[in-house]
Specification:
Layout: E1 4-12, H1 16-25, E2 32-39, E3 49-59, H2 63-73, E4 82-89
Antiparallel strand pairs: 1-3, 1-4, 2-3
């Protein structure tokens, strides 16, 4: 696969599943993954908590639109909301979300 970007977002726990559902139903994006991880913010270094990590493979032409959607829905725009970044994807294996 080429012409794609990988969007990675670390966010508050329990936000990623609704985002994945929207991406699948409304944006027809079928290549996404979410999982829980332990983490903390720099300011709250000792406050270890569960966070969600979301990765999405998206067509390069849709990347900015999807990035902006995730940014606001994951509450990254709020203090200590998490982080998000995107990068060119050099190589990837195609996989799809299961039908719900």
């Amino acid at each position: 696969m080429s012409g794609f970007k990988l969007i990675t977002c670390v966010m508050q726990e329990k936000l990623s599943l609704d985002i994945v559902k929207y991406l699948q139903e409304e944006k027809k994006i079928l290549t996404a993954n979410t999982y829980s991880a332990r983490g903390s913010t720099f300011v709250e270094f000792l406050d270890v908590r569960q966070m969600d990590v979301l990765t999405v493979v998206v067509d390069e032409q849709k990347a900015d639109e999807v990035f902006e959607y995730i940014y606001y829905e994951a509450k990254i725009d709020r203090p200590h909301g998490g982080m998000i970044f995107q990068e060119l994807l050099g190589r990837s294996t195609s996989y799809e979300l299961p039908k719900t």
